Amino acid sequence: MIENYKFKYRSRNKWFFVPNDKCERRGRRMLEFFKKRVVYPDYMYHFKKGGHVAALHAHLNNALFFKIDIQNFYYSIARMRVTRALRAWHYPGAGTFSMWSCVRNPGPGPQHTLPIGFVQSPLLASLVLMKSPVHDAIERARANGVCVSVYLDDFIGSHNDLAVLTAAYEDIRNTCVAAGLIPNPGKLVPPQAAITAFNCDLTNGSAVVMADRIGKYFASPDRTPMSDAGFIHYMSMVASKNFP
């Protein structure tokens, strides 16, 4: 029996797993293997410089936006899907390494899944997504001129034509459901002129950290001069591409 984590704990209604040393080494070996072999789609911003800030900036030229958030993203991805993804890239010992990379699901869904907390989970979730029908739906949207950004389990789409964007939104949402990657119904945002994503407000030509997030930070008793400087710099980065 493979033992791949030290302990698990629950925080903010999510389960986190702390990998043991063997699992950590295998995960980092996996990252090195794929670093040299995989070209990630342009829409995957968790592998791009700028991360979620760049994902927001990608949409500034458009007037309408949608958002899809996948519910329990990692815990929706069954071990067999991980094995298939590893085999698709000819990873040696795919079956064994998928067992090292998955845990017994602490909630509903597949019996064994990717966990939050393992270093290889973002990589493997992305490989599964790239081999799923969801990737095809995103490419269909992009072929129709829709800008799509994906940052792990957060999808944003934008366009200037409501009909085009609505069709893409419905296609991606329905494909996610069919693929077993269920959108969070409380966080689905159909096409509209303003959305909130990553604690930022996004409209045509403007991305800013939302006022509630700013207020929460400055009300924190744990602030330091260094953290203040970092937060102010972050706000500046979010707003750096805004139209005059």
Q: Which helices and strands occur, and which strands form pairs?
A:
Elements: E1 5-11, E2 14-19, H1 21-35, H2 51-57, E3 64-69, H3 79-88, H4 94-101, E4 103-104, E5 112-113, H5 121-130, H6 133-143, E6 147-151, E7 154-159, H7 162-178, E8 189-192, E9 195-197, E10 200-203, E11 206-209, H8 211-218, H9 225-239
Antiparallel strand pairs: 1-2, 3-7, 3-8, 4-5, 6-7, 9-10, 10-11
Protein architecture, described:
The protein has 244 residues and is of the alpha+beta class. 41% of the residues lie in helices and 20% in strands. It is built from 9 helices and 11 strands. Strands 6-7-3-8 form a 4-stranded antiparallel β-sheet, sandwiched between helices. The protein has a 3-stranded antiparallel β-sheet with strand order 9-10-11. Helix 3 crosses helix 5. The protein is globular and about 60 Å long. The N and C termini lie far apart (60 Å). 33% of the residues are buried. The model has no long low-confidence stretch (mean pLDDT 96).
Task: Give the tally of β-strands.
Answer: 11
- Helix % is 40-55%
3D shape = globular
Order of strands across the biggest sheet? 6-7-3-8
* Terminal residue distance: 60 Å
Uncertain regions: pLDDT < 50 for 5+ in a row?
none
Helix/strand/pairing category: alpha+beta
Radius of gyration: 19 Å
What is the typical, i.e. mean, pLDDT?
A: 96
Give the SSE string.
Answer: EEHHEHHEEHHEEHEEEEHH
Number of helices: 9
Largest sheet: 4 strands, antiparallel
What fraction of the residues are assigned to beta strands by DSSP?
A: 15-25%
Short structural description:
The protein has about 240 residues and is an alpha+beta fold. It is built from nine helices and eleven strands.
